[in-house]
Amino acid sequence: MAKQRRSLSGKVVAITGGARGIGRAMAAALVRKGCRVALGDVDVALAQRTAEELGGGTIAVGLDVTDRGSFAAFLDEAERQLGPLDVLINNAGIMPVTPLTEESDDSIRRQLDINVYGVIVGTQLALERMRPRGGGHVVNVASSAGKAGVPGIATYSATKHAVVGFTESARAEYGSEGVDFSYVMPITVNTQLIEGLKDHPGVKRVEPEDVANEVVNALETGKVDVYVPRQLRASVMIGGLLPRRVREAMARVMGVTKVMTEVSPEARRAYEERAAHSEPGMEGVDESDEARSHREAA
User: Fold this and answer.
1) Residue among 156, 174, 183, 227 flagged as catalytic
2) Could you give the CA distance from residue 22 to residue 191 in angstroms, rounded to a whole number?
3) What distance in Å separates the CA atoms of residue 182 and residue 187, rounded to the nearest whole number?
4) Which of 63, 145, 182, 281 could form a cystine bridge with 157, CB 3.0-4.6 A?
5) Domain annotation for the chain: domains and CATH numbers
6) Active-site residue, 156 included
């Protein structure tokens, strides 16, 4: 018998990095399901425009996920305006592409702050609200890079491995208290994170809406490990059974080892600059360039 799907109508959902990209797509899908959504983003002006466009009572709140006080204020405001928090989606993230030996200390620390610290703190703050009520759902957006080693994004891959391990541990610790946990592992997604990357026949791309649909499915079913596309799960499981030499040879043939190393620096420059200067207060800059929110996940 098929498992009964949960209704999402009326659920209060907070999404970090919600102004554009995957965050926006998830918000749109959840609004269609009848959810009340709060968008948190470093680019407040863009988040406000997104909220207005989505409708459904969606609100926008300024958020710097690297600041615990800012994160707590975001969730407090979401609950003040929409009601008790049912779902937190930790979506904010950055992905600089660079050879490991050339990566700056600032880039390393910024990825750890946004991609890992932000997820951990957000989960802590959500649990403070959800555990007393005996229910809730935390969704952490990781990446297929959190299940493999990808040349060109060593630090990013490390942060996404951390998100996978952290979510599994949090679920083992608090899952019995009625709080559900999911982590999302998309392959390359057509957002600003992949600007300047070349196409490789063996590396499929998905759309933000594909990720959004799988997140909705996870919230309705309680699914824990969410692969996008779904067939990626079989590839990961089969790959884990193969000898390393065979697995690595297949990755070379499919172009996996080149997807993050064969890049156009010119095409990526705008995104890399946004990621490197991802600080609150950018909303006053022309949106068409530096002010566009980089907080998407891939």
Assistant:
1) 156
2) 7
3) 16
4) 145
5) 12-281 (3.40.50.720)
6) yes
Gyration radius of the chain's alpha carbons: 18
pLDDT in tens, the chain (298 residues): 456 899 999 999 999 999 999 999 999 999 999 999 999 999 999 999 999 999 999 999 999 999 999 999 999 999 999 999 999 999 999 988 888 999 999 999 999 999 999 999 999 999 999 999 999 999 999 998 888 888 889 999 999 999 999 999 999 999 999 999 999 999 877 666 556 566 655 567 788 999 999 999 999 999 999 999 877 777 777 767 668 777 666 666 665 666 666 665 665 566 666 666 655 433 333 333 333 333 344 4
The type of residue at 237 is M
For the record, the structure tokens of 19 come out as 């102004």
